[in-house]
Amino acid sequence: MQFIDLQKQYRLHQAEIDGRMRRVLDHGQFIMGPEITELEAALARYVGVKHAITVASGTVSLEIALRALGVGPGDEVVTVPFTWISSAEVIGLVGATPVFVDINAGDYNIDVDRIEAAITPRTKVIMPVSLFGQMPDYERINAIAARHGLVVIEDGAQSFGATQRGRKSCAVTRISSTSFFPAKPLGCYGDGGALFTDDDQLNERMRAIRTHGGLKRHHHPYLGLNGRLDTLQAAILLAKLPHFAGEVAARERIGARYTELLRGVCGAPEVAAHNTHVYAQYTIRTANRDAFSEKLKAAGIPTAVYYPKCLHEQPVYQPLGYKWGAFPEAEKASREVISLPMHPYLTTAEQDEIVAVTKRSL
């Protein structure tokens, strides 16, 4: 059994994927080929924003967003300690300081009630993470940002395809970001990502930063980087995108069925009001995680832990001065969460087997 079955997805859409890749091989424009422009237009339409900018990875997308906003030394960015390290490392890469805020126990997203207490005169950006496939309450977060003159960046690396109050992830903040890492809800066959905005000036600035700080060759008004998406990866995404809505619906159906079957057995994920969930991971909670994982492994069922340590526990963030107990919900989650196999092509029989072994093993 596969944790995420990318091979099954490829077999189903092989002709379209191979055909798209072959076109790139034929025209030979491997950097910034026509598929880049085509994909950006398709992504912008899907999300419902004016501009989509493809980039080399989800990590690079966040760094470009911060650079475009002028975030740098002396500035602070509010985010969460329970996430992949990319969400915080980009803050340090531009010279700013991450300020962590605890999460909710139910949906693992930022505790909105704690955000204002973390804001100081040095705060420039609030960067929540839409973790595991659903969004925090961006209506409230945007209102807090407006009161303090801050910008909100959605880290939507795991939530592409989810909605909140009818609006798609990556369409609810001034700048949004996602990842096309292969295991993400919409994935390519390498690293990839995208930025989204309705702001024309930010769009132009982010496009320039993506290509060494300029839109015209040999003219560099910004300090930039090499953050381009490869044309071959764009071709793969163009082949997959027409099937994505069906995959999102399947993810929602499979996730809801997991929750119904596991109700009362373990800590199942909660879907917040006004949200849909794309279940980039289907994450449960158990106090005996290690023993549980070994039992599933013995039964041939793979699991994964996102994430076994909070960011404030990582050696690189020790100078920030956070101690154990600073973020109790994040810390508790990091010791209890475990993710079960989840992808749009998981069969009912496979899911029944996973649930049966889970019930026997807890």
Mind explaining what this structure looks like?
- By secondary structure, the protein is of the alpha/beta class.
- The chain folds into two domains: 6-242, 3-Layer(aba) Sandwich (Aspartate Aminotransferase, domain 2), CATH 3.40.640.10; 245-361, Aspartate Aminotransferase, domain 1.
- The protein contains 13 helices and eleven strands.
- The strands form three sheets. Strands 1-9-8-5-4-2-3 form a seven-stranded mixed β-sheet, with helices on both faces. A two-stranded antiparallel sheet has the order 6-7. Strands 10-11 form a two-stranded antiparallel sheet.
- Strand 6 and strand 7 form a beta hairpin.
- Helix 3 (34-47) packs across helix 9 (231-240) and helix 4 (58-68) crosses helix 8.
- The model has no long low-confidence stretch (mean pLDDT 97).
Keywords:
single chain, Aspartate Aminotransferase, domain 2, Aspartate Aminotransferase, domain 1, seven-stranded mixed beta sheet, 13 helices, 11 strands, globular
